[in-house]
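Researcher: Please generate the 3D structure of the following complex. Treat every line as part of one assembly.
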Amino acid sequence: MRAPLVIAGLLVAASVPALAASSEADFKTAYAAAEAAEKQAGNLRNQWLTTEAALTDAKKAADAGNFDQAIASAKEAEALAKASIFQATSEKERWKDMEIR
Amino acid sequence: MKARFAILLATAALALCALASVAPRALAADTPDPVAEAKLFRDYFTNKFPKVKLEDFVNGPYSMNEDMHKQWLEKEEFPPYQFALDAGKEMFEKPFKNGKTYADCFPDGGIGIRQNYPYFDEKEGKVVTLELALNRCREANGEAPYSYVKDDMASLTAYMAFTSRGKPFDIKIPNDPRALEAYQDGKRYFYTRRGQLNFSCAGCHVQSPGERLRAEVLAPALGILNAMPIYRSEWSGMGTISRRLTTCNSQTRAVPLAPQSDEYRNLEYYLSYLSNGLPISGPGARP
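Model: Done. Output below.
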């Protein structure tokens, strides 16, 4: 009778770290990934203003010690940067469809 | 057996014929033909707006709408670019510290030459715009270059454009593969979607001229640079071609490139070439 309770207790205890506030290390990882993607977009000459804004927001939140927000913004920046890379890649040939012929 | 061989042979021959007919077209699509393309470009706009006279396309949104055209005519009586024009004339004539002037840097003393810019410099292998040539002139004479997006450059180009008013754009593509490449690169930039809003230059100025984007009426791409630089009510001031291009990019939420980067120079070359024959009308005014 007690065993399931003990197991449930252990499971709850195990899940606590996941619910805890994000760390600076987590932020640095997320930010580095976003920066790398934005750099790639830059090499393709196709960065977006919104990506830059999300990167700035991430940095500001991290400076204020709000790492949950900082990570969320960094992840948003990474997603936007990846979308701009996709746009640049797909437009490499697709622009020709728009040409007046 | 023989019949099967004959069918196989016929199929192969058909496939070869199909390939032969497609291959030249595929090649042609990648090899620009500026003369033919300029004609197609012009035809597109004249067919889309049969009531607009060819030379009126240089008036941008004012050529698209009768009421706006009337407003423009009234505006031209006391044009908002007049101050810039006066300042530009003064700046153009004032000698540099070394005693030379802008006139020493340009053919015909810089008067009535706007229609020949941008040109392809075969020595440099790149496109040279008027704004770039002006700053190079300043630097060659020991002066600091002007910002490409601010008033001084707009005033200077306003004066130079004014001395070319009515002269048709006369952009040349020399027999140099690099010039054709610059033209093609400008075209690629013009039609490529960019920014979070996924717009290309063509999305607004080919597909939607005359339509409203919020309160603005979009200008046709044909003749779009003939009126530059422009006074824009939205900016409460003058704007150069560099300012116009970087602003267009940021409006689509793209990070603008540096003014006078290769892409912008090539874009200006491409667009100006397509407007060959249309008169210079700068400086202009826009809502």
